[in-house]
Design a protein that fits this description.
The complex is a heterodimer of chains A (130) and B (306). By secondary structure, chain A is α/β, with parallel strands linked by helices. Chain A is 25% helix and 18% strand. Chain B folds into two domains: 232 residues, 3-Layer(aba) Sandwich (Rossmann fold); 58 residues, Alpha-Beta Plaits, CATH 3.30.70.20.
């Protein structure tokens, strides 16, 4: 299996828990499936933004060269930005480690989303829009 | 002179007081509803509405044939209203704060000003009792109405305020939004005098304190109206917190409006309560005198011309 995938993560490493928030994720574990080389992209800058965190996070994912993103909840603006960057979205991934999510993806158990699953400004379990 | 009628807490009686003042004001007056998220002054003043214009905010639109995806606009924007993703410049108009920076920056002149509708500016006139001339007279009325779903009210409020000088009125009464955040501060910042309407309850006192804290640094004359001022006495509760706070802080109490069933009935019928309830008329006229006195004391040279 080839390609680069980015998984929203609470901290670096495959043992970290998936961060269910896309825009306000702590960071992304970026995995090159061909070599299983792993890197980490900090997303703390997006967490601190008053607005536009999802768009900023989408830019961060694009810069990391990922073609697929795995996360819990992706809002409409982030979804639109990811689509414009030809980055496919897999959502509803939560309650597992990054490594488990990557394994599920490799086994073909995760499906590509065709629409965002969260309202603008964060999903109901996340923070408020301020 | 501009008088802003404000409060920390919602539901204290700002609009009731503003409508009564507007009806009885003894100089040429304009009534302005700047509570743009939920304007309701018109429900009491029953103005004849003659104009309605959309209020637009300048947001960028892109000419894709000229855009080279250089990303200068996106890097400049603090609100992520623009983003270069793949082979596209994405624009999120609802994120834009209308600063216009991207339009100035674009080296290819690929961005042009478009408009996002903030809401409407509604104008008309209402009937005052006009005590100066002794017979009813029409006075200008202005209201901002925020579009449902629009997140930013200050840009709409600024457009409403830009129209105040056109009115020709000697005095302007502003019905302000409640609270102490940007919209509330926007409504009172250009006023010459601020009237804070509160009520003698723990909630009322709590938010009144916030309002005093937020507005006092503006350095404008500030007075309090205590609505339903006698409810504690009537209920046998000894709570004089609001009065004590005013005394301790040196805030003059310009009016105490008694709790009165006739006031509630007039309010529920959409009437100006100072017209409907004779005892209230005297309270509002005294308030008007305090407000005008405070304005004159703060700007004696302007008052001479009025």
């Amino acid at each position: 299996m080839t390609g680069i995938i980015a998984v929203t993560s609470e901290s670096p490493g495959m043992e970290s828990m998936v961060d269910p928030r896309f825009g306000r994720a702590a960071g992304f574990v970026v995995v090159d499936l061909a070599t299983m080389e792993i890197s980490y992209v900090d997303n703390g800058g997006s967490q601190a933004m008053a607005q536009g965190a999802g768009i900023q996070a989408a830019e961060n994912v694009a810069r990391a060269g990922a073609g697929v993103v795995l996360s819990g909840f992706v809002g409409p603006k982030a979804f639109q930005a990811l689509a414009a960057g030809d980055i496919r979205v897999i959502q509803d991934v939560e309650g597992m480690t990054v490594g488990q999510a990557v394994d599920k993806y490799k086994r073909g158990e995760l499906t590509i989303a065709d629409a965002p699953n969260a309202p603008a400004g964060g999903h109901p379990g996340g923070g408020s829009k301020g | 002179m501009i008088y802003a009628i404000a409060s920390g807490k919602g539901g204290t009686g700002k609009t009731t007081v503003t409508a009564s003042l507007a009806a009885l004001w003894d100089r040429p007056v304009m009534a302005v509803d700047l509570d743009v998220e939920e304007p309701n002054l018109h429900l009491f003043l029953h103005p004849e509405l003659t104009g309605e214009e959309p209020a637009l905010m300048e947001v960028p639109e892109v000419d894709t044939t000229r855009c080279t995806l250089c990303g200068q606009c996106a890097a400049f924007c603090q609100f992520k209203a623009l983003s270069v993703m793949g082979k596209k410049l994405l624009i999120f108009p609802e994120m834009c704060h209308g600063c216009g920076g991207c339009l100035l920056l674009c080296p290819e002149k690929a961005l042009s000003p478009g408009g996002r509708e903030l809401g409407q500016i509604v104008s008309g006139s209402f009937r005052t009792d006009h005590l100066s001339s002794g017979r009813p007279e029409d006075a200008p009325f202005l209201m901002g109405r925020l579009r449902v779903g629009e997140a930013m009210s200050p840009p709409l409020m600024r457009q409403v305020k830009a129209r105040l000088p056109e009115s020709g009125a000697t005095d302007i009464l502003i019905d302000s939004p409640p609270g102490v955040s940007c919209p509330a501060v926007n409504a009172v910042m250009d006023a010459d005098v601020i009237v804070l309407v509160t009520e003698p309850t723990p909630f009322g006192l709590h938010d009144f304190r916030l309002a005093v804290e937020a507005f006092r640094p503006l350095g404008k004359p500030l007075g309090a109206v205590i609505n339903r001022a006698d409810i504690n006495r009537r209920a046998g509760i000894s709570d004089t917190g609001v009065q004590d706070f005013c005394r301790a802080e040196g805030i003059p109490v310009w009016a105490e409006i008694p709790f009165n069933r006739a006031v509630a009935e007039a309010y529920s019928r959409g009437e100006v309560v100072a017209r409907a309830v004779p005892e209230l008329r005297a309270v509002i006229l005294a308030l008007m005198a305090h407000m005008q006195g405070a304005a004159a004391a703060s700007k004696p040279e302007e008052a001479d011309h009025a």
